[in-house]
Amino acid sequence: MAHKASKGGVLTDSTTQQHRQSTNAPFLDQIQKDTSMSSNEEELQKIKKYHEKYIDELEKQINTLHKTYAQNQEILKIERDKARYEVRRIKRTTAYRIGFFVVLVIKKIIFVSKKFLAAIKAKLSKKTFEIEEPVEVKALSKKDHAKRLKRQVEYLQSNACRNIMKLQNIHLGKRAFVIGNGPSLKNQDLSKLENEIVFVTNWFANHQDFEKIKPTYYTVASHEVFGGWNKTPDFDPNFYKLLNTKTKNTKKFFSYTFKPYIESNKMFEGHDIEYLLFERPKQLIDQLDQPNADLTKHMDDGYTVIATFCLPLARWMGIKEIILLGCDCDYGIKKESDKKSYFYDAKLHTTSVSKFENLQRIWADGGPVFQSYEKIRNDYSMAGVTIRNATGGGRLEVFEKVAYEDLFTS
């Protein structure tokens, strides 16, 4: 029950309540406002967290898409490379088949041509002249170049090459004698060479003064000693016995091709053996502008061991004066039945020899052998190496001739 206002100005209960309400109104509004703002911030925080979570999910999906794209690109690259390889393989296979067919056709043509040429020769056999087959200067094919390069890399990595490198300039400024096997040696006193640097070749161990001379180096470039290039190596037993018995104290040089054969068969045990990179496919000195003087590379073929092994070795060792002996360049062959002429009995020469027609062509006046010697003379002269010929007689007129006896006068 509401109280009435008393006299004297005192407020009643109803008036008091109204006064309080009017007095607290601003505070109540503020409280309501604060409550409303608090609620809005919570909502904003929730929305913010939701958005952040949503953005994180989007970033994860984007990263996943990037990874998938990169993987697909890698797979695409692999498949593209596979396709390119397959195309190249098909092209190579096709080219190989075409090339193989072409080679067969060429071989057939050559075979027929040789038979035709042989028939012509037979008809003209009674004439005083002979038909000589033309010799073409053949450049090495890409395949041959690749094969030679592969073998050179293999040789450079071998102990054989490292041993050859150790021989460079070991006789710097000295003179040396290079001895062939010509019949002129019968008339020369080789005992004078006892204290000289001496290179000998092939069957020279047959010489009666071999033990007295004690040659410094023994060179064997001939593939015929091993049975040929394209056959399973088979060292001539007579030649092996001769070398194994008489040359133990002489450093020997063979073709690197036959190194596995010599070592696997335990040949020349206790001997000092070195190997030079001389093998097919090879280049001929007479067909080159300049003969090779670097013994870590392929040796060039000069048709004779003197030009192929001895002279390059002497130059490599630093020799400045080279004296040739027994280089007759004349086997004394007039017809196919004739035997080659050496300082020793031809019966002792049990290895195979070149065909008669090849000998006639190679050793003809002005032929490939003499052209090779001319190339060597000119190139060595430019390098400060003098080559003189002390052979008694013979057909080798490329080098300056000198009397053998005059080389030992005081």
Quick check: average pLDDT? Answer: 82
The main sheet orders its strands as 5-4-3-2-1-6-7-8
Q: How many structural units, i.e. domains? A: 2
In the CATH hierarchy, the third-tier topology of the largest domain is known as sialyltransferase cstii, chain A
The coarse silhouette is: elongated
Radius of gyration: 48 Å
Q: Which series of helices and strands comes N to C?
A: HHHEEHEHEHEHEHHEE
Distance between the termini: 166 Å
CATH class of the largest domain: Alpha Beta
Q: How much helix, percentage-wise, in residues? A: 40-55%
Structural class label: alpha/beta
CATH 2nd-level architecture of the largest domain? Alpha-Beta Complex
Low-pLDDT segments, ≥5 res:
1-11, 124-137
Count of β-strands: 8
Strand content: 5-15%
Please describe the biggest sheet, giving its number of strands, its sense, and whether it closes into a barrel.
8 strands, parallel
Number of helices: 9
What's this, in brief?
The chain is of the alpha/beta class and 410 residues long.
Would you mind describing this structure in some detail?
The chain is of the alpha/beta class. It has 2 domains: 42-124; 142-408, sialyltransferase cstii, chain A. Helices cover 46% and strands 8% of the residues. It is built from 9 helices and 8 strands. It has helices at 13-123, 142-156, 159-166, 210-213, 237-246, 259-264, 305-316, 356-362, 368-382; strands spanning 175-179, 197-201, 217-219, 251-255, 273-276, 321-325, 386-389, 400-401. The protein has an 8-stranded parallel β-sheet with strand order 5-4-3-2-1-6-7-8. The longest helix has 111 residues, at 13-123. Residues 1-11 and 124-137 have low confidence and may be disordered.
